[in-house]
């Protein structure tokens, strides 16, 4: 079992080994396969096909497996590496430690938003964007959106989500007005479209705003924290169903065949949400 640490607690050596493993995964072409996978399974409410990753109850288990696959790929390069998490309720500034030149690099320059510093800057030669929805070949960010400022979610925002008594609710999509899943994923909640998870993607800006958001390595730190929030919600609600819906929806339900019940195999791994409820045998959080 390994430990996922808060990124602010990483030693210089741990940061260096993580970066080297990510860059090696990129050189091997494996990193871009993870980006492609996320783009393929980013399915919206408007699409009449199964949607395992977003706007759906399986948001948490799908990304847990996705993150595990990525972490295991890194560990095949360096067994000491784990994916750290970014607690954006505490590290809320464009000058927080994760944006330093020796880690993820900072925001993009004015104009084209190209990131010019850090190990993932295009000018250093090791980070070419290949899976994308734009024409750029370089990593872009716009931390905090200075021209139209956007704040990261607060501890109070997280506490409200953790206070939700149920995991998810009908109609099991982006319009759900109650439940932990959409309170964290952040679609159309209480009249505000961008909350928690979604707001962080928009705060980072650049490539983090699209379906191929894993092009920015901060994606993994963000989703490690999202995974930790699921752990905390389960601890706070031990008597609540850890995942809903329990059973496959009836044929007449508009979401039938589009969302995944507790024991429905999720693509691309054919793994059931029920198999991903307990993380404790695989890793823990510091």
Describe the structure in your own words.
The protein is mainly α and 286 residues long. The protein has a single domain (2-285), classed as Orthogonal Bundle (di-copper center containing domain from catechol oxidase), CATH 1.10.1280.10. Helix content is 31%, strand content 4%. The chain has helices spanning 12-27, 30-41, 59-77, 155-162, 180-185, 196-204, 218-236, and strands at residues 2-4, 187-189, 192-194, 283-285. It has a two-stranded parallel ribbon. A two-stranded antiparallel sheet has the order 2-3. α1 packs across α3 (59-77) and α3 crosses α7 (218-236). It starts with a strand and ends with a strand.
The largest sheet has its strands arranged as 1-4
Helix content: 25-40%
What's the order of the H and E elements?
EHHHHHEEHHE
Low-confidence stretches: none
Radius of gyration: 18 Å
The total of beta strands comes to 4
Multimeric state of these chains? single chain
And the CATH topology? di-copper center containing domain from catechol oxidase
Shape: globular
Proportion of strand residues: under 5%
Query: How does the major sheet shape up?
Result: 2 strands, parallel
Distance between the termini: 12 Å
The total tally of domains equals 1
CATH class value = Mainly Alpha
So, CATH architecture? Orthogonal Bundle
What is the CATH superfamily? Di-copper center containing domain from catechol oxidase
Q: What is the typical, i.e. mean, pLDDT?
A: 95
Which structural class do you get from the secondary structure elements?
mainly alpha
